[in-house]
Please model this.
Amino acid sequence: MAHYLPFCASRNSTSIPAGFLHAQMGGCRAKSIVLLLDCCFSGAFVSGMKAATGVDAKEQLAGYGRAVLMATGRTEYAWEGNRFLELEPEPSRFTEAIIHGLRTGEADRDGDGRVAVDELYEHVYERLRESGVKQTPQWSSELVHRVYLANRAISLQSERPSKPGARLWP
Model:
């Protein structure tokens, strides 16, 4: 029996086979794949994931493999934002938590200036639990070493250029 994941929670809802996503990941030549599934019942996706094989000594210090962050458990709905206007969309609760963690730097749990997949998941999980929304994000990982997604955001207030038109970054 094929598993299907909802593709869009709009009036034109549709779904795509989970096997299609697994096949795309399996055929991808990237060393690291991080898939974010922001859809209802996304926790059902992980069955059938295959781990990367072999370890190259040169790659010992660089993380690689696959990780999937899912908005919900197997039988849960993914909750949208509070506004339902098509002209003023709002991110889902899951996406909002991801954006918040990366934008504020709060997802950098160990303070090393980088956000790893596991740190982002911890941030999203805690943020959704604190909000009281009835969905439990999940994650599945077949990573070797840590995979980093981003550098921690810097505070623009403390890094303002000294003169108008100056750039914040080189």
Confidence is low (pLDDT under 50) at residues 7-11, 50-61, 157-170. The chain is about 20% helix and 20% strand. The two ends are 53 Å apart (CA to CA). The CA atoms of residues 134 and 161 lie 43 Å apart.
